[in-house]
Amino acid sequence: MSPILECRDLCFSYHSAEGETEALRDISFTVFPGTFTAIVGPSGCGKSTLLSLLCGLIPPERGEIISDHTHIGYMLQRDHLLEWRTVYENAILGLEMQHQCTEENLQFVRQMLTAYGLADFADAKPSALSGGMRQRAALIRTMAIRPDLLLLDEPFSALDYQTRLEVADDIGSLIIQSGKTAILVTHDLSEAISLADRVIVLTRRPAEIRCILPLDFEEERTGPRLTSLERRNSPSFPPYFQRLWKEVRHL
Prior knowledge:
By secondary structure, the protein is α/β, with parallel strands linked by helices. The protein has 10 helices and 9 strands.
């Protein structure tokens, strides 16, 4: 199977009047189709910068990103729904910007609104939605353009803890069931373990890859993939958490 994305020796620095700040150093990893990768590391180490590089918002100073024209969707920390547009109008915003409002694509959006429990709110304004519902609406907007790769920049961080658990479980399951390839940036080690196939641990700035931890839950070897909440209750969960904690606690 060919990779959907390959990073080779990525380096990036920020430049200002005060001088140069090295953010990323020699970052290399490969992403294969249908996989879910989580990236963790200390605050300010460059995790969001890495996502900006991957989606082409900024170019690397050195190294290369090989994606073979992969179509990328980017889901940010906040939902950024436009309050003057309805939920449906927000969901089709990306399609409008790309001039892709075909009947097939609009029907796809309506199907997602139904599948994600938002059909009854299609004509409502975002202010009528709970935090979790707003994130589902933001996901629909991202999925509407049918991306090959989803970049998720701490999309649950603005939610309270209980809602965060529920929405991460909900959205994680939707992404996995869709077969999409995803890269999640998070500060939450438990969240990374509960959602991903592997976790990339970055060091403090300038960020380098400290380790890449594959996740192998015994229950998934003979049965379907566990949900995020089911993984948290698995006997495999605590050892993975302890391993990750040992990797990040002294960074």
